[in-house]
Amino acid sequence: MTEAKLLTGNGAAAWGARLAAVDYVPAFPITPQTEIIETISKWVRDGSMDAKMVQLDSEHSMLTAAGSASLTGARVFTATSSQGLLYGLEMLYNISGWRAPIVLVNVSRALAAPITLEPDHNDVLAARDTGFIQLHAETCQEVVDLVLLGYRIAEDMRVRLPAIVNLDGFFLSFTRERVDLPEADKVASFLPPYRPTNPFSAERPVAKGSAVMEGDTYSYFRYHMHASSLRALDVLKEVSREYEKLFGRAYGPVEPYMMDGAEYVLVMSNSFTTLGRKVVDDLRARGVAAGLLKLRMIRPFPADEVAAQLKGRRAVAVFDQDIAPGSGGIIYPEVVAALYHEADRPKVVMPVIGGLGGKRLTLKELESIFDELRRAEKGGTVRPPGMFLMRQEELERVRTEMVTAGGDVPA
Predict the structure, then answer these.
(1) Average predicted confidence (pLDDT) for the chain
(2) Which residues contact 298 (CB under 8 A, 6 or more apart)?
(3) Alpha-carbon gap, residue 338 to 154, rounded angstroms
């Protein structure tokens, strides 16, 4: 019988690892993900979770151990955040190149400097080209489910690539929500034991990723990694149908909300999507044909699914909780590229940047995006940087506060 618990996002991530029957958990603490490894450590210590957990001296060592253990045939779980993810970034490329299907939970936290503990997505999106599959969660329920789906996709022979499951720090990591935990026996049938094809063994030594390869051979490996990553889209759709039959919840690469008849659409991901739904509900009640498209899978990028949902709309806004200074939002150009060859593409695709460093979003601010969409649609296209959800009066207020406090103030 399904067990309902009140869990934080961190607790849900820990339960995902426990239900996946992971063998090995290399760890290193960093706010706001530390609760995940503390929870797992307690379970391992009291015997309720049969796994080996080891605390390493850094995130780089942690990820090295994770990938290496996976190559011996262990099912491996670990977690990090922010600077920790970047400290181990070098090893992410190795792990994917080794085709080691670990699951890594990233609890998003904005990057220094200045230092903040609250979230945006520059940390996880810095890892978008590493070869890891990326699944992004809106709710605590999605966290536990996506961990399980992450293993199923990563370990599939058509993919054999590691996966990141992303959740927002603080907004989700420390927020308690109802989570219906999948039954362990059903999880076992959905996620059978990991069976590597060519594992390290003392009896039969093998070499992985150790040779210096010339361009032709290197390109061959990169081609296969890319092709395998693209196959993860179909694998997610396939295993999601199986997951829905077992547990009643389906998870496609994108999730449309109120898209029937929608003329103005907001594209979002992660925890702020819940606020976006509320705004869409309010606008629909006032007769505005608003809709929302949630991105759940960021790598591989679901370009065909995005184009199918957005073609024929009058105007679209892409909300980025990240920024590439000098360019703009990171996800925006990927959505634009997905729509490029559509004859019936929206007249306006507007970039929006907000929520950086965990800056709170109000319903009024999100509603103003739709106001701007309707204005732009009448006046033509919008070019980057588009709309920045920090108004001039806010900028002046923060500047004044910093000057008063004697801080370093940018020009």
Answers:
(1) 93
(2) 124, 125, 128, 134, 135, 136, 166, 269, 331
(3) 25
Distance of CA 177 to the CA centre of its chain: 19
Amino acid making up residue 32: P
Mean pLDDT value of segment 92-104:
97
Minimum mean pLDDT range among 22-26, 183-187, 214-218, 365-369: 214-218
**CATH class for the domain made up of 254-396:** alpha beta
Pick the CATH number of 3-247 from 3.40.50.10140, 3.20.20.150, 3.40.50.300, 3.40.50.970: 3.40.50.970
Coil, helix or strand at residue 248: coil
Which segments of the chain belong to CATH 3.40.50.920?
Answer: 254-396
Cβ atoms of residues 135 and 200 within 8 Å: no
Residue 54 CA, distance from chain mean position: 25
Delimit the CATH 3.40.50.970 region(s) of the chain.
3-247
User: 140-155 and 9-19 are packed helices; what angle lies between their axes, rounded to 10 degrees?
Assistant: 30
d(CA 207, CA 76): 20
Q: The pTM is what? A: 0.94
